[in-house]
Amino acid sequence: MTAPAPRPHSHPFVPYAPPRLDVAEGLRRGQELFEHLDGRRSVRFFSSDPVPREAIEMAVRTANTAPSGAHQQPWTFVAVQDPDLKHRIRLAAEAEERAFYEREDIPQWHGALSRLETDADKEFLDVVPWIVVAFAQKYRVDDTGRQKHYYVNESVGIACGMFITALHTMGLATLTHTPNPMGFLTKILERPSSERPYILFPIGYPAADCEVPELTRKPLDEALLWR
Predict the structure, then answer these.
(1) Is there a contact between 179 and 105 (Cβ–Cβ < 8 Å)?
(2) Ranges assigned E (strand) in 8-94
(3) Is 77 helix (H, G, I), strand (E, B) or coil?
């Protein structure tokens, strides 16, 4: 059999030939990954025990493996360890959260959150050893001027999912905290107008007495359809 003719390219390409697993081994690995991630929970009760900087670096490296629109990788992760800065973030987040919980025009939203027993108190932002904020880059500016980014929400969302997976794999816990609005994070963390806050991640080990709501995952027959 003759080798196929090389494909013509106008940009550099390289071979991609990952090892092909047999079906049984592939399914075994898939089941192992599912069981590992099925143990992940969002946490609001954290230990103040230190987390090495290398763990944050590893999680961001993992996020950087995510696919993105046109491979523009439109994200920035800002890691915060300074206690004063974390406290400023807490105060600003609590101000927005108080305004949210006092609103009378969104009873369904409040009702959806009721089983989580959340409120405006965000003490965990002072407790955790790290706060990491993911920013979405709407555009970038280079030598040729302003360059629009495409599929920003989708790209940053996938990267954040892989970031969470890496944290869980290292035995760490987090929460996808999204106070609304989040513009205060742009100001506190001195980010440019080309970026907007996407998710605030408090990161640490679960507290010794940590509790989470008793919830169930969506069953497969509601999440998957066959045609």
Answers:
(1) no
(2) 75-80
(3) strand
Amino acid identity at 97? E
**Helix %, strand %, coil % of the chain (to 5):** 40, 15, 45
Q: Smallest Cα–Cα separation from 205: which of 82, 54, 55?
A: 55
Phi, psi of 78 (to 5 degrees): -110, 115
Q: Contact at 8 Å (CB) between 199 and 176?
A: yes
Q: Indicate the helix (H) or strand (E) that contains 98.
A: helix 83-102
Which tokens belong to 152? 């920003």
Which 8-state DSSP code applies to residue 143? Answer: T
**Mapping DSSP to helix (H, G, I), strand (E, B) and coil, where does residue 203 land?**
strand
CA separation for the pair 126, 91 (Å, rounded): 10
- For 25-80, write each residue's pLDDT tens digit: 999 999 999 999 999 999 999 999 999 999 999 999 999 999 999 999 999 999 99
Q: Distance between CA 198 and CA 89 in Å, rounded?
A: 15
Q: Which helix (H) or strand (E) holds 60?
A: helix 53-63
Question: pLDDT tens for residues 183-204?
Answer: 999 999 999 999 999 999 999 9
pLDDT at 179 over 80: yes
Q: For the residues 162-167, what does the mean pLDDT come to? A: 98
> What is the rounded distance in angstroms from the CA atom of residue 59 to the CA atom of residue 170?
9
The closest alpha carbon to 133, from 190, 54, 95, belongs to 190
pLDDT category at 4 given cuts 50, 70, 90 is confident
